[in-house]
Amino acid sequence: MDILYSQQYPQRMRLLVQIMLLALSTSLLGCATATKPPPENRDAVAPDPQAIQKAMETGDQALKVGNRDLALFHYVKVLTLDPENVEALYKIATIHREKGNTELAEKAYRDTLKQKANHAGALEGFGLLQLHKKEFDLAKDKLAAAVKIDPKRWRAHNGLGVIADLRKDYVTAQQHYQAALEIKPGLPLLLNNLGYSHYLAGNWKLARSFFEKILAKDSRHEKAWANLGLIYVRQGHHDEATSAFQNIMDEPESLYHIGYILMMEGDHRTAANYFRKAISASPTYYPEANDNLEKIQALFKANR
User: Fold this and answer.
1) Which class for 29: exposed (0-12), middle (13-18), buried (19 or more C-beta within 10 A)?
2) What is the CA radius of gyration of the chain?
3) Are 213 and 193 in contact, with CB atoms under 8 Å apart?
4) Is 118-185 in the same CATH topology as 1-35+47-105?
5) How far is CA 212 from the centre of its chain?
6) In angstroms, how far is CA 234 from the centroid of its own chain?
7) Which region holds residue 48: left if phi is over 0, alpha if psi is between -120 and 50, else beta?
8) Which residues form the signal peptide (predicted)?
9) Handedness of CA 277, 282, 284, 287 (dihedral sign)
């Protein structure tokens, strides 16, 4: 039997889950199909609604305080009592997705959708999983289906925004981020993605306003500082870029990043100056700066 939903457990809890899964007679957990009890015996194995509810509530309480392993244990217990419990399957899938157990999450999402094809949460979760795997067409189909069923699925809107940005459809991307922000006002993740979408579209001033809005509430938000520094470099405000980057990295690294961005932009002369500054600030810490400086110098020689 394939013990599908218990691979990441501490040893003691893993053993408990294995024992519980041995009692399951369902293909939903990847186990071999067992013979169903004859009709006259089915009343003897009827699920206990109170026990199911208690296990589900205990799992929900554990999840609420961030104890995913304990929550997973109780959701698996629900399935031993009710193998076709859709919500337990869905929550198991989501926990595994969040823990990075891709194969386990995918199997559990598939099983959830076999039980309920229009489960908006499972469509969203499966879509996010496929987005992480860069299966963009599959992800888009599931995320779009999720928001069609439940327009309040902000994570699905955010995922659709990311896919649209990757395809350079910035108008659509921004519409999805805005829809997500209507559900989760002020969420830094969404503000950052919306700002970056505007940056990609060339709306640097507007993009900067979103990053500044994040930093006004959270002065330690690394992605906002990084994106703000990026905009400063693109606008030619190199001192401001240095200050922005130094909120999240040391001076040599900030100098190197400015040089690298400038090199990618084709401003090789200014990039070389920043690579020299990075090397001067930390000569042994930046072999990358030396490598890029040599590439630029080779370009200068080739163009003479």
Assistant:
1) buried
2) 26
3) no
4) yes
5) 23
6) 27
7) beta
8) 1-30
9) negative
Distances (CA, A) of 149 to 23, 54, 143, 220: 35, 29, 10, 36
Q: How many residues does the chain have?
A: 304
Closest listed residue to residue 241, CA positions, set 222, 223, 255, 224: 255
d(CA 39, CA 247): 68
Is-contact 206 174, C-beta < 8 A? no
User: Would you say 52 and 82 are in contact if contact means Cβ atoms under 8 Å apart?
Assistant: yes
Nearest to 100 by CA among 27, 187, 7: 7
Q: Tokens at residue 154, please?
A: 């902000």
Q: Is the pLDDT of residue 191 over 90?
A: yes
49/137 Cα distance (integer angstroms):
40
Sequence spans of domains, the chain: 1-35+47-105, 118-185
Residue 118, Cβ neighbours under 10 Å: how many? 12
Amino acid code (one letter) for 20:
M
285 pLDDT band, cuts 50/70/90, is low
| Tens digits of residue pLDDT in 102-143 | 999 999 999 999 999 999 999 999 999 999 999 999 999 999
DSSP H stretches of helix in 82-169: 86-99, 102-115, 120-132, 136-149, 154-166
Q: CB of 256 within 8 A of CB of 289? A: yes
Inter-residue contact 37 to 44 (CB < 8 Å)? yes
Q: Residue 241 has which token pair?
A: 């870029």
Architecture of the domain whose range is 1-35+47-105:
Alpha Horseshoe (1.25)
Report yes or no: 248 and 226 within 8 Å, Cβ to Cβ: yes
Q: Please identify, in words, the CATH class of the domain defined by 118-185.
A: mainly alpha
Per the model's pLDDT, the better-predicted residue between 4 and 168 turns out to be 168
